[in-house]
Amino acid sequence: MIMANSLPIGRVLPVLVIEDAGHAGALGDALVKGGLAAAEVTLRTAAGIDAIRALADRGDLVVGAGTVLTAEQAERSIAAGARFVVTPGFAPAVVRVCQDAGVPVFPGVATATEIQMAVDAGLGVVKFFPAQHLGGVAMIKALSAPFSGMRFIPTGGVTTALIPDYLAVPAVLAVGSTAVAPADVIAAERWDEITVRCEQAVTAAGGAA
To answer: I need a surface site. Which of 47, 81, 170, 197 has the fewest CB within 10 A?
Structure first.
């Protein structure tokens, strides 16, 4: 199991957009059955916080909050049971809330300047977003040269087919992907399909998701 700030998140982190918190139970079952041990629930929908709470209450998934834009959202997510927080960009106020609460935070970065900000904040793991649009594997290799101590979680356009390429980069800790459980598949309650997608992602990760 891959550790991030002493938190076991695995090598594949499904990024979930959940419209109905009532889907959380069956979705969690599908993820676990497919071999995944962690999930990022985004706050892109009104159901995000309730879905985090429902999944966190299971006890068999490490659940985090994604698309966290404000300190208030970070506080609500942590109160709901989020064990880590992910932001799309570098948000100093969110980072401070998480550090004060002792909750790992993975801020989004796209440039060397933002990575430098993460270093200054004492962070060792960042989300690289949107990964494919920013140059993908080649860009991470370039950025990891001057920031040799930083680990990356590339997210954004990372399909199952691309997982091996990203994980082959030593600086990549894990990959975040909506392809494991797309929003439309969740909404359609196609749980067996999500399990299969999880299994495929685990296989693509070398069986160590």
So the answer is: 170
Q: How far from 8 is each of 13, 57, 83, 92, CA to CA, in Å?
A: 11, 17, 10, 24
Q: Respond yes or no: is residue 127 known to be catalytic.
A: yes
What CATH code is assigned to 9-204?
Answer: 3.20.20.70
- 3-class SS letters over 14-81: EEECCCCHHHHHHHHHHHHHCCCCEEEEECCCCCHHHHHHHHHCCCCCEEEEECCCCHHHHHHHHHHC
| DSSP-derived 3-state class of residue 192 | helix
| Domain coordinates in residue numbering, the chain | 9-204
Euclidean distance between CA atoms 105 and 96, whole angstroms: 9
pLDDT of residue 193: 98
**CA gap 54, 207 in Å, rounded:** 27
Pick the catalytic residue from 40, 72, 193, 199.
40
114 counts as catalytic: no
**Running DSSP on this structure, what letter comes out for residue 133?**
G
Task: Give the pLDDT band (50/70/90) at residue 1.
Answer: low
Asked whether residue 209 carries a pLDDT value surpassing 70, the answer given is: no
Given a contact cutoff of 8 angstroms between Cβ atoms, the answer to whether 50 and 21 are in contact is yes
- Is the pTM higher than 0.85? yes
